[in-house]
Predict the structure.
Amino acid sequence: MLKRKITQSLIDWKNTSGHKPLIIKGCRQCGKTFSVMDFAKNYYKNVVYLNFFENPDYASVFEGSLEINHIIMLLSALMPGNAVFEAGETVLILDEIQECPDARTALKFFHTDGRFDVIGTGSLLGVKDYGKEPKSIPVGFENVIDMYPLDFEEFLWANGMTEQIIDLLKQNLETQTPIPEALHNRMRQMLLQYTVVGGMPDAVQTFVNTKQMDEVLRIQRNIVRSYEDDMVKYAGQKDKSHIRECFESIPKQLGKENKKFQYSVVKKGSTASRYAGSLQWIEDAGIIARCYNLSITQLPLDGNAERDVFKVYMQDCGLFVSMLEDGTQYDILQGNLYGYKGAIFENLIADIFVKMGRKLYYFHKDSGLEIDFVIRYKGECTLVEVKAVNGNAKSVKTILRHPEKYHVERAVKLGDYNIGKSGQMLVLPVYMAFLLREF
């Protein structure tokens, strides 16, 4: 069974006095239902489970009165023997809650009542044109947690890496001393494997059990197809084809030398007015993440972001690789990335940063200056340069030479290196990006 970080978040939520109903948001098939059910079975005497996607009839329970005793009465009649409600001992799980907006409205009344815990999960919550909106979103009466596919650390756990080994990596980062060669080589292998497998639970479990990459690829492409099916099924009629065109353009967008997202690449002659809503739909579904250009490299980053200039990355690098041509997985595992290496490694770092809760920013000027990512690290604006092969990071050096102009005195270069230091630049192996946690 895959160990997930969200389990600790769920435990912390349960142990918080007066906790509100919880909403778990995340893309389809990232493991929401499994994690919530596993937690519920271990921490509650009674688990009442409703899946509104599989059983649309359950929605009728919430169509009339939202008084809690009335809801309990209907559920116990609808699910005899499977809907036991004991104060303080029962959790109600509302799976795919976006299919029943009235159930989300009811969260306010469950919180006010206070006898039972409630967890809702949703894959398309907040997606524009989904067509099902609550009469009233219970603002102030629910907590929301974003859930992602497995991150790199969870992937390491799944493949037998112990906490002790990860603690050793952390210690070496703090002391800026090289990683022992045997561990360094093992981690380089694990990173390439994560690049092609990604973090979708079904793909990871299949990889752990079989190591058969053709089966992993089949699972990933089925997931991508299911996303495309959602675009056709749930998007507004006028946006259906536009959403899919935006989605299918992502590999092409990242393959360009200038990776800025351009609507003209989606379709020749297209503009933001035609496709901006479609791209937003994909982002709201948890499939992609935007990386905004900064007008200046200075904190606060969000305040200096140019909202109309951005790159687009897949939130899961394994799904991104699965969208490329056959043979790409083999090339990556062999270390042969050819001309596409920049796109693959940038998407890998985007995957790692997004899953640790970082928003994505980069810096590009017409003069030629370009920094792959800019983050807040240890309270400072920090440049992050990603090198698939050894490189000299010219833009980084230029910016560091002029702190009075660019307001930056710290940089991290990620590449096929061991730990080292070069002036104001910390040099790290790419696999250590997941340890850049301090904000």
